[in-house]
Amino acid sequence: MVKQPDDPGAAAVWEALAGVHDPEIPPCSITDLGVVEDVRVDGGAVEVDLLPTFAGCPALDAIREDCEQVVAAAAPGAEVRVRFVTSPPWTSDRITPAGREALRTYGITPPATDDPRPCPLCGSRNTVQESQFGPTLCRATSYCRDCRNPFETFKPKLIALKPRPAS
């Protein structure tokens, strides 16, 4: 899953990155969302690898800029390189327990494989998915029949499809 810092310099950068929040989900830090894949500190350079939740995310530039600012402050004088990588792919399994709770308090049901998904507002499981399409590609829209509120759900990681047998 997420690599942990193995030296004090990297630990300071990870701590700084924990202060960067997803612009579309303000209570969630990018570390709690599992977006930070790796931090490397080597002499006068700091490299940070981030995983986009999806390639077309409109917040990528804002996240990169915020990361560059906090890393530069945590490692004064270092050359800072922040890049998005696609391997391994980001999945909702990377979200920490704190991130899941932040999603819930923001009104988004954390990813789960169980259905129906619980309503983040009242806890009821008397819910239905209204659309696989939410405001972003990583979210869907659901509805609670008990409290009668719509809510968003984070989509679970994709399950690889088995190849069809040759006919």
Give a description of the structure.
The protein is 21% helix and 26% strand. It has 167 residues and is an alpha/beta fold. It has two domains: 8-84, Fe-S cluster assembly (FSCA) (GMP Synthetase, Chain A, domain 3); 107-154, no CATH class. A four-stranded mixed beta sheet has the order 6-9-8-7. A three-stranded mixed beta sheet has the order 3-4-5, with helices on one face. The longest helix is centred in the middle third of the chain and has 15 residues, at 60-74.
Short description:
This protein has 167 residues and is α/β, with parallel strands linked by helices. The chain has three helices and nine strands; from the N terminus they run αββββαβαββββ.
Features:
single chain, 167 residues, alpha/beta, GMP Synthetase, Chain A, domain 3, 2 domains, four-stranded mixed sheet, three-stranded mixed sheet, 3 helices, 21% helix, 26% strand
CATH hierarchy: architecture of the largest domain: 2-Layer Sandwich
If you average the pLDDT, what whole number results?
87
The total count of strands amounts to: 9
**Helical content band:** 10-25%
Sheet of most strands:
4 strands, mixed
The top-level CATH class of the largest domain is Alpha Beta
- Listing every helix as H and every strand as E from the N terminus to the C terminus, the arrangement reads HEEEEHEHEEEE
- Which strands sit side by side, in order, in the main sheet? 6-9-8-7
What is the CATH fold-level name of the largest domain?
A: GMP Synthetase, Chain A, domain 3
Beta-strand content: 25-35%
Termini, distance in Å? 38 Å
Domain tally:
2
Unreliable stretches, pLDDT < 50, 5 or more residues? none
The radius of gyration is 18 Å
**What sort of overall outline do the alpha carbons produce when their principal axes are compared?**
elongated
Number of helices: 3
What's the multimeric state?
single chain
